[in-house]
Write a structure and sequence with these properties.
Length: 439
Amino acid sequence: MWNAACKVGGPMRRKISIALLIALSASPLSATIAAVRETPIVKVVKEVAPSVVNVSAQSIVREPDPFFGSFFTHERRMQSLGSGLIIQSNGLVLTNAHVIQGASQIEITTLAGKRYKADVLGQDRDADLAVLKVDAHGLPATPLGSSSELLIGETVVAIGNPFGLSHSVTAGVLSAEGRTVPSANGKSVFSDFLQTDASINPGNSGGPLVALDGEVIGINTAIVSGAQGIGFAIPANRAHRVVDDLIRYGELQPIWTGLRLRNLDRELAHRYGLDVDRGALVAKVYPGSPGAKAGFQPSDVIQAINGNRVVSREDVTSALYSVAVGRNLPVKVWRDGKSLDLRLAAARPPEGLGLRLLERGIGLEVEVRQGALVVRRVHAGSTAAKQGFQPGDVIVSANGQRLHSREQLGREVLRAFDRGGLALVVARGPYAYHLELPL
């Protein structure tokens, strides 16, 4: 039989060859080849990609006329593209705050090509996160995972829309944790970022960084400029806390420890007579605050929190904002040449605390007059007095946010307390002044 088959030639041989190929393609061999090609990265992309969306944000920019100056203005439309992650099937989408900043219209597009108009449920510029809501149900969702037990060097996958190229996939390794990096405009410092060599470009912002087990460990951000071959992501643990607040309150709620912290360096260490020069220096402890109850004292140096090394005050803030309010975190403190172990829990600030800090710490009392926030009194010898504040000055904005009420100003004071400084825009007559006040 075999010999007879071997002697067949011409058209008959071609027919047998084609039949053999068809039989082989239908055999388990093709499934084996597919199994070999379906790497862990391929499996992760199949699992998570349906939850990744394209985010298109349109805004209207008014610019001075090039011939007539600011007397006449013209409008032009701007469009920014980014990515997002559907975190709940009822239409909740997580993205970066800078992707939708100033947008008048937002639209998301799913992997299946469906388009939805989106509303902003809440956003926080300091965390660079925003939650969008679309009118849809049954969407493919991937919830945030955990960034607690990551392995440096493990493979990670970034999914997004770099340069408008829908659902692009890049892979690399987790390069580092706890990175502190400046924003592109230099006005903000972001701490506790994940670093990866998976390519993250404009358009990837807001998309997920995924481990090989399919868990979303971070939200990618391309807000850092000049980083060649380096990508950054917001850790999932920190994003959890921000997202919960944005969904419940529309903004990230401030926390209160009562510790005024400063970044310790050699000069500051020499001034305070300290024998360590890295960490977060406790400059002041407010009486009755969570920090006071925990046993902190001025001149303490926080060297570690929740098992992670502290290099700056931002490390302390990031740790506290990454856990539930009221949860105790272990803190290693250097005091009088000895290492101490304390426990610190952040709390919700008491009602009106921000305005009290503004009055007692900076020396400003404000009131609302005809819809504007006006300085009513400046305390003699205070920081505000030294900065030249006068009664009647109008406080236009704080930390880049336009103000409409005393309560809003109080919240911004508390947010600034974590950063050590309050940025105000103050109007006097026809002029506006940008001032930075230490807290």
